[in-house]
Amino acid sequence: MAAVEKPGVDYLRPRTWQDAVALKTENPAAVPINGGTDLMVDLNFARSRPPTLLDLSHLDELRRWEKSNGTVELGAGVTYTDVLEHLGSDLPALALASRTVGSPQIRNRGTIAGNLATASPAGDAHPPLLATGATVRVESMRGIRDVPIGRFFTGPKRNVLEPDELIRSVLVPSARGPQQFSKVGTRNAMVIAVVSFALAFDVPSRHVGTGIGSAAPTPIEAADAAAYLDRELAREGYWEDHRELSAGVVDGFADRVAAASRPIDDVRGPAGYRVHALRVMARRTLRWAWSALATDGIHAH
Amino acid sequence: MLIEVTVNGRRRTAENVWAGESLLYVLRERLGLRGSKDACEQGECGSCSVYLDGDLVCACLVSAGQADGAEVVTVEGLADGESLHPIQQAYVSEGAVQCGFCTPGLILATHCLLEANSDPSDDEIREALAGNLCRCTGYEKIVSAVRLAAMETAVG
Question: For the segment B40-83, what is each residue's pLDDT rounded down to a tens digit?
Protein backbone atom coordinates (compact mmCIF):
# COMPACT_ATOMS: atom_id res chain seq x y z
CA MET A 1 0.00 0.00 0.00
CA ALA A 2 1.37 3.37 -1.00
CA ALA A 3 0.53 5.04 2.26
CA VAL A 4 2.70 2.68 4.25
CA GLU A 5 6.44 3.19 4.40
CA LYS A 6 7.26 -0.28 5.68
CA PRO A 7 4.47 -2.70 4.96
CA GLY A 8 3.61 -5.26 7.57
CA VAL A 9 0.56 -7.05 8.72
CA ASP A 10 0.67 -5.37 12.07
CA TYR A 11 1.90 -1.84 11.61
CA LEU A 12 0.58 0.98 9.46
CA ARG A 13 2.25 4.35 9.24
CA PRO A 14 0.15 6.71 7.11
CA ARG A 15 1.93 9.72 5.60
CA THR A 16 -1.11 11.98 5.64
CA TRP A 17 -4.28 12.38 7.65
CA GLN A 18 -6.37 11.42 4.62
CA ASP A 19 -4.39 8.17 4.35
CA ALA A 20 -4.94 7.55 8.06
CA VAL A 21 -8.70 7.95 7.66
CA ALA A 22 -8.71 5.62 4.64
CA LEU A 23 -6.61 3.02 6.47
CA LYS A 24 -8.99 3.07 9.43
CA THR A 25 -11.89 2.28 7.09
CA GLU A 26 -9.94 -0.55 5.46
CA ASN A 27 -8.77 -1.85 8.87
CA PRO A 28 -11.52 -1.08 11.36
CA ALA A 29 -9.85 -3.33 13.95
CA ALA A 30 -6.61 -1.31 13.75
CA VAL A 31 -5.85 0.49 16.99
CA PRO A 32 -4.61 4.06 16.65
CA ILE A 33 -1.44 4.88 18.55
CA ASN A 34 -0.06 8.35 19.15
CA GLY A 35 1.52 9.11 22.52
CA GLY A 36 1.21 5.46 23.48
CA THR A 37 1.00 6.30 27.18
CA ASP A 38 -2.15 4.21 27.64
CA LEU A 39 -1.92 1.70 24.81
CA MET A 40 1.70 0.64 25.39
CA VAL A 41 0.93 -0.29 29.00
CA ASP A 42 -1.66 -2.75 27.70
CA LEU A 43 0.81 -4.12 25.15
CA ASN A 44 3.66 -4.40 27.66
CA PHE A 45 1.47 -6.37 30.04
CA ALA A 46 -0.07 -8.41 27.22
CA ARG A 47 -3.53 -7.22 28.19
CA SER A 48 -4.30 -6.64 24.55
CA ARG A 49 -2.79 -7.68 21.24
CA PRO A 50 -4.32 -5.49 18.56
CA PRO A 51 -4.02 -7.09 15.13
CA THR A 52 -2.81 -3.80 13.69
CA LEU A 53 -1.33 -0.59 15.01
CA LEU A 54 -2.23 2.58 13.14
CA ASP A 55 0.60 5.00 13.96
CA LEU A 56 -0.61 8.60 13.98
CA SER A 57 2.46 9.95 15.77
CA HIS A 58 4.31 11.01 12.63
CA LEU A 59 1.52 13.17 11.22
CA ASP A 60 2.86 16.70 11.71
CA GLU A 61 -0.50 18.09 10.60
CA LEU A 62 -2.05 16.69 13.80
CA ARG A 63 0.54 18.33 16.07
CA ARG A 64 -0.94 21.79 15.47
CA TRP A 65 -3.45 24.15 16.98
CA GLU A 66 -5.33 26.98 15.36
CA LYS A 67 -7.14 29.89 16.93
CA SER A 68 -10.11 31.36 15.11
CA ASN A 69 -13.43 32.94 16.07
CA GLY A 70 -12.84 32.51 19.77
CA THR A 71 -12.05 28.81 19.50
CA VAL A 72 -8.81 26.87 19.71
CA GLU A 73 -8.81 23.79 17.49
CA LEU A 74 -6.36 21.30 18.96
CA GLY A 75 -5.12 18.78 16.42
CA ALA A 76 -5.24 15.18 17.63
CA GLY A 77 -1.46 15.14 18.06
CA VAL A 78 -1.31 18.07 20.49
CA THR A 79 0.35 16.96 23.73
CA TYR A 80 -0.16 18.01 27.34
CA THR A 81 3.24 19.73 27.16
CA ASP A 82 2.06 21.74 24.13
CA VAL A 83 -1.03 22.89 26.01
CA LEU A 84 0.73 23.83 29.20
CA GLU A 85 3.61 25.60 27.44
CA HIS A 86 1.67 27.44 24.76
CA LEU A 87 -2.04 27.63 25.54
CA GLY A 88 -2.23 28.61 29.19
CA SER A 89 -3.93 31.96 28.54
CA ASP A 90 -6.47 30.64 26.02
CA LEU A 91 -7.22 27.38 27.81
CA PRO A 92 -6.33 27.90 31.49
CA ALA A 93 -8.31 24.99 32.94
CA LEU A 94 -6.97 22.55 30.36
CA ALA A 95 -3.43 23.84 30.96
CA LEU A 96 -3.84 23.44 34.73
CA ALA A 97 -5.09 19.90 34.21
CA SER A 98 -2.30 19.14 31.73
CA ARG A 99 0.29 20.13 34.30
CA THR A 100 -1.06 17.47 36.67
CA VAL A 101 -0.78 14.68 34.09
CA GLY A 102 1.89 12.09 34.90
CA SER A 103 5.39 13.47 34.56
CA PRO A 104 7.30 15.49 31.96
CA GLN A 105 7.98 12.24 30.10
CA ILE A 106 4.27 11.40 29.97
CA ARG A 107 3.18 14.95 29.12
CA ASN A 108 5.66 15.04 26.23
CA ARG A 109 3.94 12.07 24.59
CA GLY A 110 0.36 11.92 25.82
CA THR A 111 -2.24 13.80 23.79
CA ILE A 112 -5.58 15.41 24.59
CA ALA A 113 -7.19 13.35 21.84
CA GLY A 114 -5.67 10.18 23.25
CA ASN A 115 -7.20 10.99 26.62
CA LEU A 116 -10.58 11.20 24.87
CA ALA A 117 -10.01 7.98 22.93
CA THR A 118 -9.17 6.09 26.13
CA ALA A 119 -12.20 7.74 27.78
CA SER A 120 -11.23 6.85 31.31
CA PRO A 121 -13.65 8.31 33.87
CA ALA A 122 -10.49 9.69 35.53
CA GLY A 123 -8.94 11.32 32.43
CA ASP A 124 -7.47 14.67 33.49
CA ALA A 125 -8.42 16.57 30.32
CA HIS A 126 -12.09 15.67 30.56
CA PRO A 127 -13.36 17.97 33.34
CA PRO A 128 -11.88 21.10 31.68
CA LEU A 129 -13.27 20.06 28.30
CA LEU A 130 -16.71 19.60 29.88
CA ALA A 131 -16.52 22.87 31.79
CA THR A 132 -15.61 24.83 28.65
CA GLY A 133 -18.11 23.12 26.35
CA ALA A 134 -15.58 21.58 23.97
CA THR A 135 -16.46 19.71 20.79
CA VAL A 136 -14.77 16.55 19.51
CA ARG A 137 -14.29 16.54 15.75
CA VAL A 138 -14.36 13.00 14.43
CA GLU A 139 -13.63 11.87 10.88
CA SER A 140 -14.11 8.80 8.73
CA MET A 141 -14.46 8.16 5.01
CA ARG A 142 -18.15 8.87 5.57
CA GLY A 143 -17.38 12.43 6.59
CA ILE A 144 -16.74 14.66 9.56
CA ARG A 145 -19.00 14.93 12.57
CA ASP A 146 -18.76 17.20 15.60
CA VAL A 147 -19.66 15.60 18.91
CA PRO A 148 -20.39 17.84 21.90
CA ILE A 149 -18.17 16.73 24.76
CA GLY A 150 -21.20 16.02 26.94
CA ARG A 151 -22.30 13.34 24.48
CA PHE A 152 -18.86 11.87 23.75
CA PHE A 153 -18.50 9.50 26.70
CA THR A 154 -20.84 6.51 26.79
CA GLY A 155 -19.44 4.45 29.68
CA PRO A 156 -16.23 3.59 31.50
CA LYS A 157 -13.52 3.62 28.80
CA ARG A 158 -16.22 3.86 26.14
CA ASN A 159 -17.04 6.64 23.73
CA VAL A 160 -19.13 7.30 20.64
CA LEU A 161 -16.34 6.52 18.12
CA GLU A 162 -17.37 4.05 15.42
CA PRO A 163 -14.80 1.48 14.26
CA ASP A 164 -14.02 3.49 11.12
CA GLU A 165 -13.66 6.82 12.92
CA LEU A 166 -10.64 8.73 14.20
CA ILE A 167 -10.50 11.83 16.38
CA ARG A 168 -9.24 14.60 14.14
CA SER A 169 -9.26 17.53 16.58
CA VAL A 170 -10.84 19.01 19.67
CA LEU A 171 -12.43 22.46 19.51
CA VAL A 172 -12.19 24.34 22.79
CA PRO A 173 -13.67 27.81 23.28
CA SER A 174 -11.02 30.34 24.34
CA ALA A 175 -11.46 31.47 27.93
CA ARG A 176 -13.66 34.49 28.48
CA GLY A 177 -13.26 34.48 32.25
CA PRO A 178 -11.44 32.75 35.09
CA GLN A 179 -11.11 28.97 35.04
CA GLN A 180 -9.93 26.51 37.65
CA PHE A 181 -9.04 22.85 37.94
CA SER A 182 -8.52 20.77 41.04
CA LYS A 183 -7.47 17.15 41.46
CA VAL A 184 -7.05 14.94 44.49
CA GLY A 185 -4.36 12.27 44.52
CA THR A 186 -1.70 10.80 46.76
CA ARG A 187 1.03 13.05 45.40
CA ASN A 188 1.39 15.94 42.96
CA ALA A 189 2.74 13.85 40.10
CA MET A 190 2.11 10.47 38.54
CA VAL A 191 -1.36 10.06 39.96
CA ILE A 192 -4.63 8.99 38.51
CA ALA A 193 -7.23 11.32 39.96
CA VAL A 194 -9.11 10.06 42.99
CA VAL A 195 -11.52 12.79 42.04
CA SER A 196 -11.18 15.97 39.96
CA PHE A 197 -13.19 19.07 39.20
CA ALA A 198 -13.03 21.93 36.70
CA LEU A 199 -14.92 25.18 36.60
CA ALA A 200 -15.03 27.86 33.89
CA PHE A 201 -16.69 31.25 34.05
CA ASP A 202 -17.86 32.70 30.76
CA VAL A 203 -18.14 36.35 31.73
CA PRO A 204 -19.96 37.75 28.67
CA SER A 205 -22.78 35.22 29.00
CA ARG A 206 -22.61 35.22 32.81
CA HIS A 207 -22.47 31.45 32.78
CA VAL A 208 -20.40 28.90 34.67
CA GLY A 209 -19.42 25.53 33.22
CA THR A 210 -18.46 22.50 35.29
CA GLY A 211 -16.78 19.13 34.85
CA ILE A 212 -16.37 16.24 37.29
CA GLY A 213 -13.79 13.48 36.89
CA SER A 214 -13.44 10.09 38.57
CA ALA A 215 -16.76 10.26 40.39
CA ALA A 216 -19.17 8.61 37.93
CA PRO A 217 -19.01 5.94 35.19
CA THR A 218 -18.00 8.74 32.80
CA PRO A 219 -16.75 12.29 33.21
CA ILE A 220 -19.86 14.41 33.75
CA GLU A 221 -21.08 17.96 34.06
CA ALA A 222 -22.80 19.21 37.19
CA ALA A 223 -25.60 20.87 35.27
CA ASP A 224 -27.87 21.56 38.24
CA ALA A 225 -25.03 23.17 40.15
CA ALA A 226 -24.15 25.37 37.18
CA ALA A 227 -27.78 26.41 36.66
CA TYR A 228 -28.10 27.17 40.37
CA LEU A 229 -25.00 29.36 40.38
CA ASP A 230 -26.00 31.19 37.19
CA ARG A 231 -29.39 31.93 38.76
CA GLU A 232 -28.08 32.99 42.18
CA LEU A 233 -25.31 35.23 40.82
CA ALA A 234 -27.85 37.05 38.64
CA ARG A 235 -30.56 37.24 41.28
CA GLU A 236 -28.26 38.53 44.04
CA GLY A 237 -26.54 41.10 41.83
CA TYR A 238 -23.06 39.59 42.15
CA TRP A 239 -22.19 40.47 38.57
CA GLU A 240 -22.78 44.13 39.36
CA ASP A 241 -20.38 44.51 42.31
CA HIS A 242 -18.24 41.30 42.25
CA ARG A 243 -18.43 41.21 46.02
CA GLU A 244 -17.30 38.12 47.86
CA LEU A 245 -19.70 35.21 47.43
CA SER A 246 -21.81 34.37 50.47
CA ALA A 247 -21.26 31.04 52.22
CA GLY A 248 -24.82 30.16 51.28
CA VAL A 249 -24.18 30.51 47.55
CA VAL A 250 -20.86 28.68 47.72
CA ASP A 251 -22.30 25.82 49.76
CA GLY A 252 -25.39 25.65 47.57
CA PHE A 253 -23.15 25.23 44.53
CA ALA A 254 -20.86 22.71 46.25
CA ASP A 255 -23.76 20.59 47.50
CA ARG A 256 -25.21 20.40 43.99
CA VAL A 257 -21.82 19.46 42.52
CA ALA A 258 -21.49 16.68 45.08
CA ALA A 259 -25.06 15.56 44.38
CA ALA A 260 -24.29 15.23 40.67
CA SER A 261 -21.61 12.60 41.32
CA ARG A 262 -22.18 8.86 41.34
CA PRO A 263 -18.88 7.54 42.67
CA ILE A 264 -17.89 4.01 43.55
CA ASP A 265 -15.47 2.53 46.10
CA ASP A 266 -12.25 1.45 44.43
CA VAL A 267 -8.52 1.08 45.06
CA ARG A 268 -7.97 4.82 44.85
CA GLY A 269 -10.62 5.83 47.35
CA PRO A 270 -14.05 5.16 48.83
CA ALA A 271 -17.17 6.73 47.36
CA GLY A 272 -17.90 8.72 50.51
CA TYR A 273 -14.49 10.33 50.39
CA ARG A 274 -14.96 11.28 46.75
CA VAL A 275 -18.24 13.03 47.48
CA HIS A 276 -16.68 14.86 50.41
CA ALA A 277 -13.60 15.88 48.40
CA LEU A 278 -15.73 17.01 45.50
CA ARG A 279 -17.70 19.33 47.73
CA VAL A 280 -14.47 20.84 49.05
CA MET A 281 -13.00 21.22 45.56
CA ALA A 282 -16.18 22.84 44.24
CA ARG A 283 -16.10 25.37 47.08
CA ARG A 284 -12.42 26.16 46.61
CA THR A 285 -12.39 26.41 42.83
CA LEU A 286 -15.47 28.63 42.92
CA ARG A 287 -13.87 30.99 45.44
CA TRP A 288 -10.54 31.03 43.56
CA ALA A 289 -12.19 31.76 40.24
CA TRP A 290 -14.59 34.35 41.61
CA SER A 291 -11.85 36.24 43.45
CA ALA A 292 -9.72 36.24 40.28
CA LEU A 293 -12.68 37.72 38.47
CA ALA A 294 -13.20 40.34 41.16
CA THR A 295 -9.48 41.19 41.16
CA ASP A 296 -9.05 41.35 37.40
CA GLY A 297 -12.26 43.30 36.95
CA ILE A 298 -15.25 42.06 35.13
CA HIS A 299 -14.13 43.38 31.75
CA ALA A 300 -10.61 41.97 31.89
CA HIS A 301 -11.59 38.99 29.78
CA MET B 1 9.56 -5.63 10.68
CA LEU B 2 12.99 -4.14 10.15
CA ILE B 3 13.56 -0.93 12.00
CA GLU B 4 16.31 1.64 11.76
CA VAL B 5 17.08 3.91 14.67
CA THR B 6 19.86 6.41 15.15
CA VAL B 7 21.07 5.80 18.69
CA ASN B 8 23.62 8.16 20.20
CA GLY B 9 24.58 9.31 16.71
CA ARG B 10 25.03 5.81 15.27
CA ARG B 11 22.61 4.29 12.82
CA ARG B 12 21.43 0.92 14.09
CA THR B 13 19.08 -1.65 12.62
CA ALA B 14 17.07 -4.39 14.24
CA GLU B 15 15.38 -7.22 12.36
CA ASN B 16 12.26 -9.25 13.03
CA VAL B 17 10.97 -6.64 15.38
CA TRP B 18 7.33 -6.83 16.43
CA ALA B 19 5.91 -3.34 15.92
CA GLY B 20 4.17 -3.45 19.27
CA GLU B 21 7.26 -4.19 21.34
CA SER B 22 8.70 -1.22 23.15
CA LEU B 23 11.62 0.95 22.17
CA LEU B 24 13.05 -0.05 25.54
CA TYR B 25 13.02 -3.71 24.52
CA VAL B 26 14.69 -2.81 21.23
CA LEU B 27 17.42 -0.83 23.00
CA ARG B 28 18.13 -3.43 25.67
CA GLU B 29 17.48 -6.77 24.03
CA ARG B 30 18.14 -6.14 20.36
CA LEU B 31 20.84 -3.46 20.46
CA GLY B 32 22.51 -4.46 23.72
CA LEU B 33 22.20 -1.04 25.30
CA ARG B 34 21.37 -1.88 28.89
CA GLY B 35 21.81 1.60 30.35
CA SER B 36 18.10 2.36 30.07
CA LYS B 37 16.54 0.28 32.82
CA ASP B 38 13.48 -1.94 32.56
CA ALA B 39 11.40 -1.65 35.72
CA CYS B 40 7.71 -0.79 35.71
CA GLU B 41 6.95 -0.95 31.96
CA GLN B 42 4.07 1.46 32.48
CA GLY B 43 5.65 4.91 32.51
CA GLU B 44 5.51 5.22 36.29
CA CYS B 45 9.16 4.99 37.28
CA GLY B 46 11.14 6.87 34.63
CA SER B 47 14.07 4.44 34.74
CA CYS B 48 13.87 3.99 30.95
CA SER B 49 13.91 7.73 30.15
CA VAL B 50 15.57 8.56 26.82
CA TYR B 51 15.43 11.35 24.31
CA LEU B 52 13.26 10.54 21.30
CA ASP B 53 13.70 13.12 18.54
CA GLY B 54 14.69 15.61 21.24
CA ASP B 55 11.83 14.93 23.69
CA LEU B 56 12.34 13.22 27.03
CA VAL B 57 10.13 10.12 26.97
CA CYS B 58 9.71 6.76 28.65
CA ALA B 59 11.15 4.26 26.18
CA CYS B 60 8.75 1.63 27.50
CA LEU B 61 5.80 3.65 26.14
CA VAL B 62 7.13 4.09 22.60
CA SER B 63 6.40 1.25 20.21
CA ALA B 64 9.22 -0.06 18.07
CA GLY B 65 7.22 0.80 14.98
CA GLN B 66 6.89 4.40 16.08
CA ALA B 67 10.64 4.60 16.76
CA ASP B 68 11.54 3.49 13.24
CA GLY B 69 13.53 6.34 11.71
CA ALA B 70 13.85 8.23 14.98
CA GLU B 71 16.88 9.71 16.71
CA VAL B 72 17.38 8.36 20.19
CA VAL B 73 19.82 9.46 22.86
CA THR B 74 20.33 7.15 25.83
CA VAL B 75 22.46 7.48 28.95
CA GLU B 76 25.27 5.74 27.06
CA GLY B 77 25.40 8.78 24.78
CA LEU B 78 26.22 11.36 27.43
CA ALA B 79 29.77 10.53 28.54
CA ASP B 80 32.67 11.60 26.37
CA GLY B 81 34.66 8.39 26.14
CA GLU B 82 35.95 7.59 29.59
CA SER B 83 35.17 10.99 31.08
CA LEU B 84 31.77 11.33 32.65
CA HIS B 85 29.32 14.00 31.65
CA PRO B 86 29.24 16.77 34.33
CA ILE B 87 25.75 15.61 35.37
CA GLN B 88 26.98 12.06 35.86
CA GLN B 89 29.98 13.36 37.82
CA ALA B 90 27.68 15.46 40.00
CA TYR B 91 25.61 12.39 40.89
CA VAL B 92 28.81 10.58 41.90
CA SER B 93 30.17 13.55 43.86
CA GLU B 94 26.95 14.05 45.82
CA GLY B 95 26.49 10.36 46.61
CA ALA B 96 23.21 10.42 44.75
CA VAL B 97 23.65 6.85 43.53
CA GLN B 98 22.90 3.85 45.71
CA CYS B 99 21.66 0.78 43.86
CA GLY B 100 21.88 2.76 40.64
CA PHE B 101 18.77 1.44 38.99
CA CYS B 102 17.02 4.80 38.79
CA THR B 103 20.18 6.73 37.98
CA PRO B 104 20.25 6.57 34.16
CA GLY B 105 16.69 7.88 33.94
CA LEU B 106 17.40 10.59 36.50
CA ILE B 107 20.54 11.63 34.62
CA LEU B 108 18.52 12.05 31.42
CA ALA B 109 15.72 13.91 33.22
CA THR B 110 18.33 16.19 34.81
CA HIS B 111 19.94 16.77 31.43
CA CYS B 112 16.56 17.70 29.95
CA LEU B 113 15.83 20.09 32.83
CA LEU B 114 19.19 21.85 32.65
CA GLU B 115 19.00 22.23 28.88
CA ALA B 116 15.81 24.27 29.35
CA ASN B 117 16.63 25.92 32.68
CA SER B 118 20.25 26.38 33.70
CA ASP B 119 19.44 27.63 37.21
CA PRO B 120 16.39 25.72 38.47
CA SER B 121 14.84 26.26 41.90
CA ASP B 122 14.34 23.26 44.18
CA ASP B 123 10.65 23.22 43.27
CA GLU B 124 11.50 23.22 39.58
CA ILE B 125 13.98 20.39 40.12
CA ARG B 126 11.39 18.33 41.98
CA GLU B 127 8.74 18.94 39.34
CA ALA B 128 11.14 18.04 36.51
CA LEU B 129 12.18 14.81 38.24
CA ALA B 130 8.67 13.89 39.39
CA GLY B 131 8.48 11.03 36.89
CA ASN B 132 11.63 9.31 38.15
CA LEU B 133 11.36 7.11 41.21
CA CYS B 134 14.24 6.25 43.55
CA ARG B 135 13.51 3.55 46.11
CA CYS B 136 16.88 3.66 47.95
CA THR B 137 17.96 7.02 49.16
CA GLY B 138 15.10 9.40 48.93
CA TYR B 139 15.68 12.48 46.91
CA GLU B 140 17.78 14.91 48.94
CA LYS B 141 21.09 13.82 47.46
CA ILE B 142 19.60 13.65 44.01
CA VAL B 143 18.36 17.22 44.28
CA SER B 144 21.81 18.23 45.57
CA ALA B 145 23.39 16.55 42.56
CA VAL B 146 21.14 18.50 40.20
CA ARG B 147 22.08 21.76 41.98
CA LEU B 148 25.77 20.88 41.69
CA ALA B 149 25.38 19.93 38.04
CA ALA B 150 23.64 23.23 37.35
CA MET B 151 26.52 25.08 38.99
CA GLU B 152 29.20 23.08 37.22
CA THR B 153 27.48 23.47 33.88
CA ALA B 154 27.12 27.22 34.42
CA VAL B 155 30.82 27.52 35.36
CA GLY B 156 32.00 25.17 32.62
Answer: 999 999 999 999 999 999 999 999 999 999 999 999 999 999 99
Do B19 and B65 fall into the same domain? yes
- Give the pLDDT confidence of A193-224 residue by residue, as tens digits: 999 999 999 999 999 999 999 999 999 999 99
Asked if the structure places residue B81 within a domain, the reply is: no
pTM of the model: 0.95
User: Could you please report the per-residue DSSP string of chain A?
Assistant: -TT-SS--TTEE--SSHHHHHHHHHH-TTPEEESS-TTHHHHHHTTS---S-EEE-TT-GGGS-EEEETTEEEEETT-BHHHHHHH-TTTSHHHHHHHHTSS-HHHHHH-BHHHHHHHT-TT-TTHHHHHHTT-EEEEEETTEEEEEEGGGTEEETTEES--TT-EEEEEEEEPPSS-EEEEEE-SSSSS---SEEEEEEEETTTTEEEEEEESSSSS-B--HHHHHHHHHHHHHTTHHHH-PPPPHHHHHHHHHHHHHH-----BTTB-HHHHHHHHHHHHHHHHHHHHHHHHHH-TT--
Same structural domain, B48 and B92? no
Query: What is the dotted CATH code of the domain comprising A65-173?
Result: 3.30.465.10
Q: Which residues of A touch B37 (CB under 8 A)?
A: none
The domain limits of chain A are 11-55, 65-173, 179-296
B139 touches chain A (CB under 8 A): no
Range of the domain at B148: 86-155
B38 interfaces chain A, CB cutoff of 8 Å:
no
Cross-chain CB nearest to A37 (options B2, B61, B68): B61
| Complex-level ipTM | 0.96
Residues of B in contact with A58 (CB under 8 A): 66
